[in-house]
Amino acid sequence: xxxxxxxxxxRSSRFASVAFICGCPLFLFCVTYRQSSTERRALKTRASKRxxxxxxxxxxxxxxxxxxxxxxxxxxxGTRLHAIGRPSSSDGLPxxxxxxxxxxAKCIExxxxxxxxxxxxWARVASISDEPSYGTSKKSDIEGTVPVLRxxxxxxxxxxxxxxxxxxxxxxDIAKYDLHxxxxxxxxxxxxxxxxxxxxxxxxxxxxxxxxLIRFRAILxxxxxxxxxxxxxxxxxxxxxxxxxGVNQSNINARKLKSFLIPVPPLAEQLRIVDALDKYLALVxxxxxxxxxxxxxxxQLKSKVLDLAVRGELVEHDPGDEPASELLxxxxxxxxxxxxxxELKPKDVKNDTVIxxxxxxxxxxxxxxxxxxxxxxxxxxxxxxxxxxxWxxxxTPVALDPKNDVDDETPxxxxxMAAIEEGFRNQYHPEIRRWKEIKKGFTQFAxxxxxxxxxSPCFENGKYFIASCLESGAGAGSTELYVLRxxxxxxxxxxxxxxLASNYFMGDAxxxxxxxxxxxxxxxxxxxxxxxxVPPLDEQHRIVKTIEAAFSLTNL
Length: 556
Fold this sequence. Notes:
By secondary structure, the chain is α+β, with helices and mostly antiparallel strands. Helix content is 32%, strand content 18%.
């Protein structure tokens, strides 16, 4: 049974009462009479005693509603906008009663989510539509003749995506579940999609609808307006409050859908709202497409800047800079000293090598401890680098996944993968835990370490950071992280960070992904084989400064 929502008490000298609309096919009607001067004076006296901003607003709201409803009725406009008055009680609260007049009105103040403009009213979906119906439960395929719209075809923008369709040739289903232009389809479950999505069917492609959808048809209300009203955060909040949660999915049935409150403007205003939204949302869509194109161009620019940086083509070279070969020699000495102090393990320096140019102009590699012969690796050199730069294996100037020496009761930072921001933003949001709670079963890191995700898609999405301001200088996090620790006399950490974000490193890394889909990750041997181009230390700082200046201009 359709319901009627009453909006305001009667305070007008012209309109004494407003009747309600009954279920289809009856229509809204108004009863009017002119009050006597005595009645008018009595009303005026009572109003002056209880005048307030709220009462004044209610009066204006009622008069505007009544005037609009009467006008549309007199013009012959059939409408099911409930109207729209309140019962004769004057407590200023919204009430609802059955449209057939049976039963008592009940206060629904707690259900009203926000105040409406003058001339608007609230209505249940049941009051402004036909009986909602579920779609076909039969299976479909790709060989049929008529598309079957499913929940995956409904977008969050309230439109229908026809790019991934299944079909049916079942004559009974085609006749029973055919969609008419202007129909609204509601996604009642969230298996693979968000429950409560709504779409407007424009009839551009003949179609029927599947069982996970509910079809409802507006009666004398603009369906595009209803669609826009239901593609709002208000509707999403309502869905979250009424959905039934199962083991694998949530659900909103037709009974609950019928109870949803729609804010209904006058008919002419509905059209103006739809026209405005059609216009401006089209502009937004265009802006979003342009933004996507711009994002693609900016991503290419970022990739190009980093590519030039690691190839030595981004900044000018200073012949007075200390050669990178001498920097690498100092790093080797510092790493050995760290082993002596117990800060690194012997395994952290065991496989260090030195890459140099032989008298024949070719590149050779030998163990840093000098215990084996050099071998030619010319075929592994990916590109030429400037004079004063040197090649080395990525793990030669750094230690991979080192451990921290921290007291058990020390507070430390804890970072699950979800706490690390994407987009190479170097941002994270740690929890604070005692070290004994996180020292085992997690990846350890400390201030100054360069940390990055090794699992897809977190790796490609840029979950990278340089650890700083950690609680007590120490932290631990997801086991799907790699940690690179450089000595105090080592590489400039920001240069290392941007190297890891370059397409040279990331592109080749993705070619070596191991594991099942959704669990693919970079293996340690890729890092061991990776060739790192090392500029002089001063040039590393100039490179980073230029990269960050370029990125700040493009807001990357």
